[in-house]
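Form 7-S
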Amino acid sequence: MEISVSVSRPLGALFEAEMQFLTQAGVRFVDVYPAAVPGYKGHSGDLQGIAAYVASVHDAGLRVRILNVETLEALMGHPRAEGQLQAAGEAIAFAGREGIPLVRLWPQGPRQGPSLVPGRYSKAHRGGYRMDAFRLDAMRRALAQRDLGARWAHHFTESLTPETYFSNLVTTLQRLVPVAEDADVKVMLHFDDPPVPDEANLLPGIVNPLLITRVFEAVPSDHLGLLFCVGTRYESGVDVYDQIRRFGRRQQIFHVHFRNVRGTIPTAGGYEEVALDDGDLDMFQILKAFQATGYDGSLSPDHPMIFIGDEQRRASLAYHVGYMKALLSALS
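Output:
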């Protein structure tokens, strides 16, 4: 297993310093997010910017392992869906030519990740390091205000139903997975973050194993699988080890977001993201569970904490990379 770190810093002096830092930390692989590419919106014509960014990563001596591809317009069924699907197909074909093995559809769904869901807050832990936390009751209170100016207003302005969203997801995958098969690139889906239960005016997205299984049944392919997020699985209250066995034995786990958590939504009404050695999970046992399924892919130190005086999160990233390297060494 290898460590792969997410990068979203635009090209320039800070990018070069970031690549040097990752090399010093012993990282060889990176995951490229759209935010790193100026002007990237997932439309035709964006490929030139992606190519320039990937070339710069490779020039710095690292390799891109994951390319995140924008698909929001297609998942929401918006008018620009066709153009976005065409651009996504071009990006997947590009990944194949560049030897990038994995593509993640980004964002997963209309919640667009943690920043567009109410209920999150910053929580201090031992010594004052900070990480995100989430409360379901706070999310419900914020949504009940139906603030049309809020970042999450799409939850009550979009008329999309869960079944229509699922249909759009299947259509998107039916269009892109054959391209991935031809390019020998694997397409990944990520669980919703936060993994909130179904609520009025909230689409369920990829929350539970049953819905994930529906996706795999609708689009059967060994080039379609999961970006398995340990944190969101635990937060949702499911048995993480059972989930690893369920999907790992089917070879449906392509990459892992490796992070620890304290508390779950069903039992505590929320959770706190914490350092790898500071949560409810024994991360070495989690690693052993992946190994038992034959998993030999990559792991990302997802959501690094903020140490005092380390707003760039370099110290915390080095902490997590070093911790993960130690676990991998013990595993072997």
